[in-house]
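In this section we walk through a basic example: taking a raw amino acid sequence and producing a predicted 3D structure, encoded as discrete structure tokens. The instruction is simple. Fold the sequence below.
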Amino acid sequence: MTGYVLKLARQSAGLTQERLAERLGVDSSTIQGWESGRRPLSAMSAGEFVRLCARLSRLGAPSSTGRHLRAAIEADLVLSTGISAGADWVDPEVHPLAASVHRKTLTNLITWPFTGHLPPELEVFTPKVPRRGPVASGPMMGADERTRFFDHLLTVAERGIHAEEALLRRQAVYLLGFDQREQVAEWLRGEWAKAGRRPIADGDVTSLLEARSASVALASTGDGSHLHDFVTRANGTRAELANLNYWAHWIGELHDDQTDDSFMADDDSMAWSGVRLLHHLVSRLDPALPHLPLNLHTVHTLVASRPALLTTSPAARTALAGALEVVTSADTLTRDGRDQVAGLHYALRLADR
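The resulting token sequence is shown next.
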């Protein structure tokens, strides 16, 4: 990830490898090594890395280059840990999946080799250097490396049964949704059978998130029925608060890093505004997306808890109304989904008064 992000930054500055090497006072083979991953940027000293990020921005790359490179290093650490370990266990004390609750930006980087989709955050890198012949459109991962990475996630998910391993296990289960092997999808169905049917007590964030992660991962594999079940179970319970707090962290409305999931039970959900979250979720009200039931449910809960999001923003009302029209016309909604759409239409009418 890091080498490819560096390449994007260089191209956005309008520099060839040779020209960047000249400006940095290094050999062109050094730039080639950084971009190919043969000489990982993570091996640099902290001072050298900070200076490199600053130089890139001064040479014409976006000012956010350093932030994106730091995130790419973290993504590389997750991927390399899994690939190196394969089916072996790695203690949560040193496992990068257990270090903090991931946000969307980091997860997009980790899953980039599997989805083939450029993370939206990296669209700031507009190339100004013509490509030389056929080149990869993103970071590549060999079939053996993919297998080793997903085998490791499965090991983590199966063996991480203790309380101190909850975050490691949950984030591994979520990433397993990007594995296309049928045996993994079958394992996820078994996981839902255990986690999704178990009663969830108020404040039991761990059980809630185990069910959420299993249903979201299954939806990513094409089996969306369990996500509908999860949304139905969460409706009208404290699980809705935990879901909102999780989304706020995921999208970046909660600025502090979180080292475990306990923040999701925080009653003070007004610590974040919801403006960014509403914008993100409305853009995800797409009938073609596997997680539509959860996205729609979360929009409904968000608007119900913060009606001012619509009353103070005509643009938000217009965007939501348009998205609801698309969702309704697709005729894929369940009864609960139709009820949520009706509730949102009512909220829009109130906000228009």
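Looking at the output, two observations stand out. The two ends are 49 Å apart (CA to CA). Residues 33 and 39 are 5 Å apart (CA to CA). In the next section we compare this with other chains.
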